[in-house]
Fold this sequence. Notes:
Layout: H1 4-19, H2 21-33, H3 43-58, E1 60-66, E2 69-76, E3 87-91, H4 102-110, E4 114-118, H5 133-147, E5 152-156, H6 159-168, E6 181-185, H7 191-202, H8 206-220, H9 229-232, E7 240-244, H10 254-260, E8 266-270, H11 283-294, E9 317-319, H12 321-326
Parallel strand pairs: 3-4, 3-5, 5-6, 6-7, 7-8
Antiparallel strand pairs: 1-2, 2-4, 8-9
Amino acid sequence: MASLLEKITRAGFRVVDAVSPEKAGELAFRLFTRTRSTRPQSEKERAALAKARARMAEAELVRLMIPGSVVATHVFRPSPMDDNGGRVLIVHGYRSRSDHMVAMADKLVAAGYTAVCLDLPGHGASSGRVLHLPRAVEAIDAAWRQHGPFDAFVGHSFGGPSVLAAAAGAILHVPRRLPKRIVTIAAPSDMGDVFRWAAKLLGLGPAAQRSFEGQVMRVAGRPLSEFRVDRMAHDLSVPILVIHAEDDKEVAFDNARAIASLGSNVELFRANGYGHRRIVSAPPVTAAVADFISRAGEGGDIAGLWLPDAVQSPMLVPHPREDSRRLA
């Protein structure tokens, strides 16, 4: 059942839509891309942030300028004895922040990598109130120029299409930034689906929805239809690890199948039982990510990916590449 605020918002858009569908679409895009307060939204989130606070304080905080925002990067370094010289960029999802990626960063640090966690605009310690895919890619580009080049990108949820877009050079005004390996976790495969969900939530009519989706061309230089994996990242040949839970209630598992269908360079793993948010800190998942990235310097094909016994559990089951290609 829709909340009172949702009902009022829809009623307001119906009024604007009746007068000017074009204006209704513009207003919908403004609302859709406006970030919410960075304050904890629940006791559970408050507890999670408190748990990560001490570790976050140990990271080096580096702030970077992009249009409309000062973005924060948090640098976690291994000891000089353990440092293998590798660097990994970790990008969180919408309504998240680097604090929630600490377990992932720590696992990579233990493997000898410098882990750089990026707070997207309007999230965590970053300023700004606007976030869309081009703005996220601008932030990734700033992190690359300051801390890169990176051996790997790790993107959770909205961070997934963000790192894929950066690696594919999908945003015309931002240089392509291609790492050696990419990991997506619980990531959507088609931004058009996200826009259609939002249009339905806001109660937009057909003309207003076209205007809403048309705003993508204005900020990205390409239409919304280009921002799905089979169009955006079809020529990516670097090894990609796709991790997703079939019980994810926020981003359907079919999105993982779509990303996995990109080609033989992609491996799909089911991380069942961890849902959409707990998945980023689940020990089997962080172990699989660290193992996958550690193989970047060995020159082997992803088909030879080996997972330690701790990862070979019902919670993380390798999905045969043949099935990944077939289940587009």
